[in-house]
Amino acid sequence: MSAPSGVLARFSLNGKTAVVTGGARGLGLEMMRALAECGASVACVDLLAEMGAQACVDIEQQYKVKATSWACDVTSYEEVQTLFEQIAQQHGSIDILVTAAGIVKNVKAEEHSPQDFARIMNVNVNGTFFCCQAAAKEMMKQASGGSLILIGSMSAHIVNKPQPQCSYNASKAAVIHLAKSLACEWAPHKIRVNTVSPGYMATDLTKQVIADRGAEGAAMKAAWEENTPMARMGLPHELQGAIVYLASEASSFVTGSDLVVDGGYLAW
What we know:
The protein has helices at residues 26-37, 49-63, 77-91, 114-142, 166-186, 204-212, 214-226, 240-247; strands spanning 17-21, 41-45, 67-70, 96-99, 146-151, 191-198, 258-261. By secondary structure, the chain is of the alpha/beta class. The longest helix has 29 residues, at 114-142.
């Protein structure tokens, strides 16, 4: 295969369309902004439709790329399939998918309700698969390949402390192995599938959770930082480089891999 000349050129996403689930806020928004900055048109898929629409307005103004917002429940197979067809029609293609939509619940395993456990699995695993499947179908129609980036977590590799979250941990472990399975199946179609596994990130939502818990939240944050060699939480923009790398031709021989961005947490 031919490659763009020069290292920096291989990071360009000009002419590509990237779909980001959970892109209306937090880490998903940071990822979407990074893809737009590198030249990709972006489609934000999020239940927070108004927030997603405003994010797209801001991205269009700042990066001069096409940005569209789509309301969707990723756990609905039919809704996802229809939506991705519509995105492909409006943008002309789907070349990149980032699955940042996900939920977590901190509850002791013996007290975990079956409804909550099923909901977390449904959003984090089923929703991820439905979006991957829909994006891959469009990529196969285009016959030009593409890059699927599933958002995993260091929680797929370790058990977090002090907060109990067995359902989230199990769901993210499933996401990472799902990515490896899809990478092997879809490699003949020139579709690469990888995961990015963040550590503790200082998003607005995380900061609010810590603040709402008062002394308990402060102790939890202190424990997270103590167990991270870099002794701090990550900043949302520190995931941007990993996303652009995996989305672009700079990672053209990378598939079935998990890129951990955790400040060294897994090293201890």
